[in-house]
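hiii, so i know i said id send this last week but things got crazy w the move. better late than never?? heres the sequnce for the chain we talked about at the cafe, plus the structure i predicted for it. fair warning i was half asleep when i ran it
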Amino acid sequence: MKKIYILPGYQETTRRRPYQKLRSLLQSKGYEVVFKNIDWQKKLTTQMFEIEKDSVVFGFSLGAVLARLVVQKYSCKHAIFASMTILSDFKKGENRKALIDLLGTEFVDDVRDCLKPKHKALKQTIMYGDKEGEDTADVFVKNTEHELTDEYLREIIKIV
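okay and structure toks below
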């Protein structure tokens, strides 16, 4: 059976309706869905986990950053980074300060220190809502800001 790991966004859990809906849609396509909730009080690098080479990893927002860290270490078939926090923001700039204000210096520096330029996913898809203001992505979800809308879910299902 095909396996997909789902990592939620900041201060979210997979118990939220959009993630439950996504699970149902993926299961109807023959996927075994594995939810990986994140403890936002801990560093992301302490929450990495092993994945299978033929699996798919999906992360939303800051959960996509953890997904990125996981696929730096482990190979997978496909990594989907949805509305991912911009990786360069962990390193420099005004947005770094905003991340530190939100998450703390230790959390942000932990991510910064572990980011590598490449990962081991065979395929990568980057998604953003078309109203998020990002200018590069493989998929722009129509009429969507930084949230897992029904339109977002439809685009995810097309990708997998």
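btw The two ends are 14 Å apart (CA to CA). thought thatd interest u
miss u guys!!
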